Amino acid sequence: MRLKRLKAGDRELAKVLFSVMAEVFEEDSEELSDGYIGRLLGREDFWAIAAFVDNDIVGGLTAHTLPMTRAEYSEIFIYDIAVRSDHQRQGIGRRLIEELRAQAAGMGIRELFVPADNEDVHALDFYRALGGEAAPVTIFTFTDDSE
User: Do 62 and 47 meet the contact criterion of CB atoms below 8 Å apart?
Assistant: First the structure.
């Protein structure tokens, strides 16, 4: 298994990664334009790390670097992490988190955080097994339904 942080020239790989993630989460997704994906991958504050077995993408994560205002540092918000069901429980998710932490540390970023639904016991157990500490928060979502 190998990991790769996707960059601007990796649009086709990103399309596959995003498709795998939507499939794992059983979510509908729309096809993203090449321009949108290129701009997204061209951002230094956006992370897309793909996990490959042979030449197949079997999982990955997306994250965003957030500059803080309390001091001159950043934190990373892990938005999605997904591994295909036929490759779960093989350490791929752990390796993805470890890779992100290592690359972030190389940039001076020491803190990462990830939301998990309280009902998602598998995710909660996974993050705890990696040494994550749960923080009691409630996330509010605001959606513009005017369309």
Answer: yes
- Residue type, position 120, single letter: D
pTM of the model: 0.89
Write down the residue that tokens 């036929």 correspond to.
86
Q: Report how far residue 22's alpha carbon sits from residue 25's, in angstroms, rounded to the nearest whole number.
A: 5
Of all helices (H) and strands (E), which one includes residue 97? helix 92-106
Buried b (16+ CB within 10 A) or exposed e, 87-117: bbeeebbebbbebbbeebeeeebeebebebe
Condensed to tens digits (0 to 9), the pLDDT of residues 49-103 reads 999 999 999 999 999 999 999 999 999 999 999 999 999 999 999 999 999 999 9
Cα three-residue angle 3-110-97, rounded to 5 degrees: 30
